[in-house]
Amino acid sequence: MIVAFSVTPLGVGEDVGEYVADAVRVVRESGLPHRTDAMFTSLEGEWEECMDVVRRAVAAVEARAPRVSLVLKADIRPGVTDGLTAKVETVERHLSEG
């Protein structure tokens, strides 16, 4: 499964980078394949693994912020591995053909 999620602290002002870094640190320490961009962090693994990382990432932000927003999207496809790379490669292949 691939999970794309965003954890946003609320009530801490406009500069939220240090809070988001706490969440991303949890993801990086998980050892699961992941990518972080300007809007979301995506990670790949089994259901329990991914949800545990998301829960801990939210908890890391929640420990310092009075309120937390979580946006989550999941692609649940049993038996698929390396989806983080394969999905992008498929799109790139189609772009190069046209």
Automatic annotation (TrEMBL):
<feature type="domain" description="Thiamine-binding protein">
    <location>
        <begin position="3"/>
        <end position="92"/>
    </location>
</feature>
<dbReference type="Pfam" id="PF01910">
    <property type="entry name" value="Thiamine_BP"/>
</dbReference>
<dbReference type="InterPro" id="IPR002767">
    <property type="entry name" value="Thiamine_BP"/>
</dbReference>
<dbReference type="InterPro" id="IPR029756">
    <property type="entry name" value="MTH1187/YkoF-like"/>
</dbReference>
<protein>
    <submittedName>
        <fullName>MTH1187 family thiamine-binding protein</fullName>
    </submittedName>
</protein>
<comment type="similarity">
    <text>Belongs to the UPF0045 family.</text>
</comment>
<dbReference type="InterPro" id="IPR051614">
    <property type="entry name" value="UPF0045_domain"/>
</dbReference>
